[in-house]
């Protein structure tokens, strides 16, 4: 059974404590927008998959209750930074498996100011879920007094530079591109453009990464309505529908740790495996993509993901971004939303916000950031510790 996204919505992503709201307020705003976009009522939703990382156990129910008290199953989902896409995957599975015809995927996060920690309260890395990953980093590079997530990705950048000759300017080109894209996104946390030189001159977080190459902590929510083909046909939603053609989640394998490199520890092998599964299922490849939303938590991860998705060969990603191939007028438009670096990164919402952006792009509704003639889009969302979710979406006719 096919699954379609027929409605999406999101809040603006904002710096924590910018607005006086609670997580259920932002969830209500995003969920209401998605339902209105689909033209359906919450009473028609049969199950709700809700992603969040930093709220309490049944925060999903507290948030969903703002949309209605219908008694339907509500699931709390937590998969680190891949939480939102995991909730979307659950919604798709419910529909494709035939257990529901209409499912809401909802993600939100209300975060604290400052750098994101290493996945363990109080910095106790011995018991952290990502202790194995940070152990790889410590063995190869030591452990410094900088934010741990920036540190492990920064060390991956150093490895890429040493191995392939990637330059700091190429890394900064990712940040400059994504900040430039976000100028046209009213939902983005930041809407300022920067040159490569300005990105390079920003405060260093962990060499070679500067502040303008790192995703911020953010508050925000996003939602998507996922339905079956028969539901879309019965309710006349064909012109709103974007098909979830293929989707895959992978987790760490021995390849993540065998090399002893940060490049592998931060998830390039599992991203590559997820992409390969999706391409095989869809019968498509990188050459067929028009628009991509990928997990640029740090500029180096965008470069690593180019290689994992097959946009270029191993070690060629720095030259790819430098060539202009991943922006407007190039071969693909990557992160037209501004990506995590500039749009923001409220963990539970990020993956669903990627799907929202692609839905608008494939419908031709993205306004000033519209990718011309976009028909096929791909989302990539990764969580350290780990999970990688790749989703391929396509515009088309329901029943075709």
Please provide a written account of the structure.
This protein is an alpha/beta fold and 400 residues long. 38% of the residues lie in helices and 18% in strands. It is built from 15 helices and twelve strands. Helix 11 (268-282) crosses helix 12. The chain starts with a strand and ends in a 5-residue tail after the last strand.
Structural key phrases:
single chain, 400 residues, alpha/beta, ten-stranded mixed beta sheet, two-stranded antiparallel ribbon, 15 helices, 38% helix
Calculate Rg over CA atoms. Answer: 19 Å
Tell me the series of helices and strands, N- to C-terminal. Answer: EHEHEHEHHHHEEEHEHHHEHHEHHEE
- What is the count of DSSP helices, taking H or I runs of 4+ residues? 15
Overall outline = globular
Structural class: alpha/beta
Instruction: Report, as a whole number of angstroms, the end-to-end distance.
Output: 13 Å
Give the helix proportion (percent range). Answer: 25-40%
Helices and strands, with pairings:
Blueprint: E1 3-10, H1 23-38, E2 47-51, H2 59-64, E3 74-77, H3 83-96, E4 102-109, H4 131-141, H5 148-164, H6 168-182, H7 196-201, E5 204-206, E6 209-210, E7 220-228, H8 229-234, E8 242-250, H9 255-258, H10 262-265, H11 268-282, E9 291-293, H12 299-309, H13 317-323, E10 333-334, H14 339-343, H15 347-363, E11 376-383, E12 387-395
Parallel strand pairs: 2-3, 2-4, 9-10, 9-11
Antiparallel strand pairs: 1-7, 1-8, 4-7, 5-6, 8-12, 11-12
Helix pairs in contact: 3-15, 6-12, 6-13, 11-12, 12-13
């Amino acid at each position: 059974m096919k699954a379609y996204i027929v409605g999406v919505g999101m809040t603006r992503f904002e710096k924590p404590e910018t607005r006086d709201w609670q997580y259920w307020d932002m969830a209500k705003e995003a969920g209401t927008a998605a339902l209105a976009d689909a033209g359906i009522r919450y009473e028609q939703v049969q199950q709700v998959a809700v992603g969040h990382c930093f709220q309490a156990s049944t925060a999903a129910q507290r948030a969903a209750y703002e949309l209605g008290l219908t008694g339907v199953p509500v699931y709390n989902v937590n998969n680190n930074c891949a939480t939102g896409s995991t909730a979307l995957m659950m919604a798709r599975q419910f529909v494709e498996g035939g257990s529901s015809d209409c499912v809401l995927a909802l993600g939100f996060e209300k975060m604290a100011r400052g750098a994101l920690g290493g996945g363990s309260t109080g910095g106790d890395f011995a018991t952290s879920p990502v202790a194995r990953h940070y152990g790889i980093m410590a063995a190869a590079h030591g452990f410094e007094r900088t934010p741990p997530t920036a540190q492990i990705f920064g060390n991956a950048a150093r490895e890429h530079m040493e191995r392939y000759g990637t330059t700091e300017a190429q890394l900064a080109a990712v940040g400059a591109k994504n900040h430039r894209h976000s100028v046209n996104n009213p939902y983005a946390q930041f809407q300022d453009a920067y040159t490569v030189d300005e990105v390079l001159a920003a405060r260093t977080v962990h060499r070679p990464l500067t502040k303008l190459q790192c995703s911020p902590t953010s508050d925000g929510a996003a939602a998507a309505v996922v339905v079956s083909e028969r539901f879309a046909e019965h309710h006349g939603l064909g012109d709103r529908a974007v098909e979830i053609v293929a989707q895959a989640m992978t987790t760490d394998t021995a390849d993540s740790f065998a090399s002893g490199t940060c490049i592998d520890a931060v998830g390039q092998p599992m991203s590559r495996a997820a992409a390969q599964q999706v391409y095989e299922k869809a019968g498509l490849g990188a050459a067929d993509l028009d628009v991509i939303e990928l997990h640029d938590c740090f500029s180096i991860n965008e470069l690593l993901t180019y290689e994992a998705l097959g946009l270029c060969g191993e070690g060629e990603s720095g030259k790819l971004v430098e060539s202009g191939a991943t922006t407007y007028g190039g071969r693909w438009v990557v992160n037209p939303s501004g990506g995590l670096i500039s749009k923001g990164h409220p963990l539970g919402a990020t993956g669903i916000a990627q799907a929202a952006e692609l839905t608008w792009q494939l419908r031709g509704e993205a306004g000033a950031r519209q990718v011309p003639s976009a028909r096929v889009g791909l989302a990539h969302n990764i969580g350290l510790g780990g999970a990688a979710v790749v989703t391929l979406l396509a515009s088309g006719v329901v029943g075709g």
